[in-house]
Amino acid sequence: MKLPKFLLADNSDFPEDLFVVHTEYPRFILNVEEEDVEWLDDLEGDDEETVATEATKVVEEAFKWCDEELAKYDEEDEE
User: Fold this and answer.
1) Residue 55 within a domain
2) Cβ atoms of residues 65 and 71 within 8 Å
3) pTM over 0.70
4) For residue 1, is it within any domain?
5) Angle of CA points 38, 30, 45, to nearest 5°
6) Looking at CB atoms within 10 Å, which of 8, 24, 29, 48 has the fewest?
7) What does the alpha-carbon distance between residue 57 and residue 75 come to, in Å, rounded to a whole number?
8) pLDDT at position 43, please?
9) How many domains does the chain divide into?
10) What is the mean pLDDT of each successive set of 10 residues along the chain, which is 79 residues long?
11) Could you tell me what percentage of the chain is helix, strand and coil, using 3-state DSSP and rounding each to the nearest 5?
12) Residue span of the structural domain in which 10 resides
């Protein structure tokens, strides 16, 4: 099965939170409201700085994707 790179998620146990699930390496769950990341994969690499830079980049991409996705919902509501 082919999965999207990002998924939106919520949970009734955390009614105030919105989550983004990143399905590709490095997999993680981002709590958008708390700006907290739970890594599902071990981040490996020869250069810790490069690994940290790449991790930061993909988390920023997740925030951007989430903002764009939520904007689409807002547009649908306006129609």
Assistant:
1) yes
2) no
3) yes
4) no
5) 55
6) 48
7) 27
8) 83
9) 1
10) 96 97 96 97 82 93 97 80
11) 40, 20, 40
12) 6-78
